[in-house]
Amino acid sequence: MLAFILRRLLVAIPVLILLVVVTFVLMYAAPGSPFATERGVPPQVLANLEREYGLDRPFLAQIGTYIWNIVSDFDFGPSFVYRDQDVNDLIAQGFPVTLTYGFWAFVLAVLVGGTLGIVAAVRQNSWLDYLAVGISIGAQVLPNFVLAPILVLIFTLWLGWLPGGGWQGGQWEFVIMPVVALGTSFMASIARIARASMLEVLSSNFIRTARAKGLPGRRIILRHALKPALLPVISYLGPAFVGMITGSVVIDIYFSTGGIGQFFVASALNRDYGVMMGITVLLGALTILFNLLVDIAYAWIDPKIRY
Amino acid sequence: MRTATLSDASALATAPKGRSLWADARRRFFRNRAAVAGLVVLALIAAFALLGPWIAPWDYEEIDWAVLGSVETMGRPSLETGHWFGTDQLGRDLFARTVQGTQISLMVGIVGALIAVVVGTLYGSVAGYFGGRVDGAMMRVVDVLMSIPYMFVLILLLVVFGRSILMLFVGIGLISWLDMARIARGQTLALRGKEFVEAAIATGVHPFRIILRHIVPNLLGVIIVYATLLVPSMIIYESFISFLGLGVQEPLTSWGALINDGAAEMRNGTSWQLLFPLGFFVAGLFAFFFIGDGLRDALDPKDR
């Protein structure tokens, strides 16, 4: 098991470096200086600015310093637009917000979606099953950027129950709509996957054996069927995590929650390459780390996997 | 010899007509009510996109100066002003803009899915056919690309190389072929051991000819199903990018851009600006999903 984890780590590191290099090359190849403005900056000032930020150095020296600063000091460098803030400040400001609603959305997706799917399969063709199937079909066509305006239209504008945006340090009435908007489509996917795999497991031979032995139904479900049925759900968690990170951009913009996605899009529109690169690298690293955890969990649960 | 083949042919003609795999699939598909409903809805939306420009009394760029400034009251959907779907915040006719957005969204969805399917199928079948080291290396590349949060890289691409429809196609196409490659590879692995492939190898057919003439046609069922399900996800990607303001540029528009505009303005009491594009988006995606599910049930006999 330890060897498996180490080997996966060894694969993850080159991926991470590749991500940094690709991002850096893109930024380096970008036409125009990040300091150029519409009014035009005197060439001498531009040169001074570029020297100040180390942009006049050779490519390899720049990327070397960039990677070294991240590895040694966890320092993502300066922002090119906000002179008094560096990328670390922006991340420290936005990341806790993203983490809060992202965590709850993930809980909603996995716990509610998983339970819904399992119960639907156990009680196949009951009203609960139809409800689960209905929700999962409906949520397919409601990605976060569609669901968010619908929620605001209903709960803020028509009913007036919830505030339409803001964060206020994370009080529940500000958190609830971001969580629902972000988590619902993944909840539906997980419910669909869990239902399908549970149905398959329930019709397999070892479950028939367990029934023939006269084991109580609850015990069959919880002790025998649940674990194999959850395997496809676990392998979906990686893509779901990526989807939620991407979705957080929409949530931050639509609900003005002040999370990390807001800085990302602002930096994309401002051509603030330092911030864009820092956020891409950070979220990429998180994704790779999470996929690693999913792989390990999968190998741990599934006895068929040899490592 | 000649007479023998002729009589064979006439014997075939009188024999009970066999049902091909495709005829069977077609029959199964048309028995599926949801799939047929999806097909009808999709045909209506396509007709709307194609015929809309001739019906609409206004142009999608044209500003109705009589409405500008009092869109909340004057820009409501009405038959008298000719703004059947109302106007947007700049006084442009929403019907014409929805027609235009539908064209772009459908085009992005179909072209994006096409790129993904062609690239993914070729890549996956080559990896699966050659196997061994080639397979290992090619699929490792897919694994690496899959573990990158591509949306951020796509946004990066759009910012660095400027926003254009072409860049959007390239960016979406670049990332969306990965799943298709995996599916095609898996299927090819299963086909590679079959006798007809062996026979082709034994008669000395070139490997790439085997892939194109013998492997890919056998993947067609899976490819079609996956392509139909890929179209809505392409539309969702494009809408997401347009929602962030990085997609198609004014005065062109798309479902995502229209939803974004409507969502930004709905606090002013102009909810029709959100609801009309949203309705088309939801109906269109439902149609594609139902057709995709219907095709899967029709073409994949494993499930029955």
Supply the number of structural domains of chain B: 1
Query: Largest interface: which pair?
Result: A-B, 45 and 36 residues
Helix content of chain B: over 70%
Instruction: Give the CA-based shape of chain A.
Output: flat
Q: From the structure provided, what is the oligomeric state, counting identical versus distinct chains? A: heterodimer
DSSP E strands of chain A, number: 0
- Please give the number of β-strands of chain B: 0
CATH architecture of chain B: Orthogonal Bundle
List segments of chain B where confidence is low: pLDDT < 50 over at least 5 consecutive residues: none
Helical content band of chain A: over 70%
Task: Give the overall form of chain B.
Answer: globular
Helix tally of chain A equals: 11
Q: Can you summarize the main beta sheet of chain A?
A: none
- Number of helical regions of chain B: 12
pLDDT averaged over residues of chain A: 81
Structure characterization notes:
The complex is a heterodimer of chains A (307) and B (304). By secondary structure, chain A is mostly helical. In chain A, α4 runs antiparallel to α5 and α4 packs antiparallel against α9. Chain A starts with a helix and ends in a 6-residue tail after the last helix. With 304 residues, chain B is mostly helical. Chain B has a single domain, classed as Orthogonal Bundle (MetI-like fold), CATH 1.10.3720. Chain B has twelve helices and no strands. At the A-B interface, α1, α6, α9, α10 and α11 of A face α7, α10, α11 and α12 of B.
